[in-house]
User: Fold this.
Amino acid sequence: MNDFASTPKLVLLPAVDVADGKAVRLTQGEAGTETNYGDPVDAALDFARQGAEWIHLVDLDAAFGRGSNAGTLRKVIKQVRGVQVELSGGIRDDRTLEAALESGAARINLGTAALENPEWAADVIGRYGDVIAVGLDVRGTTLAARGWTREGGDLWTVLDRLEEAGCSRYVVTDVTKDGTLKGPNLDLLRELTTRTPKPIVASGGVSNLDDIIALRDLVPLGVEGAIVGKALYAGAFTLAEALDVAGY
Assistant:
């Protein structure tokens, strides 16, 4: 237990995914699998009250190219002052990036744009540095784009390109695990830590407190944090319990 107590903390980012103005969770990122969990502001405030330092906030409609929840996202960010927000979904050009930055988000997570418009992504990484993270959403070693509806290239090829551009952080999701409560892909995360010295935020599959402990064991290798979604909404554990085993 002493060894575990000395392991650096795993940064937890409870997820608030927004579709049609509601907090929802998807299974394996598929449109049409939404389970509705009510008001995103209430969800975010609940996480803040339990001690969250970060919230991972996603505009699913923007990610799928079917609309925007920008007003709702701004309201969430405003209500949880003191909690840092990582914002994701549909940020693909200067206009959407500037709007995301103006919303008060501490970090912007680029997804599809980093795959489909590498020159723009490299320019943005150069301009904004640590404010920009890149989401690598994978099935096997093939990246997924456009709300996970299209293939986006080979993981290792894209990673090399992003390393060259100076990307400061990666948010890595195993699409096959996301929303399934079947455990994170630890092997993928371990391999990624051998390919980049940059911090990695793990996403997808966390189902119980043991999964958080397993992810915390990877912190010395370079896994900085973990996004937790469905397990919290399904009541598998509370955020306060998760923060405790994560080392807060």
Notes: The mean pLDDT is 91. DSSP finds twelve helices and twelve strands in the chain. Residues 56 and 236 are 19 Å apart (CA to CA). The two ends are 15 Å apart (CA to CA).
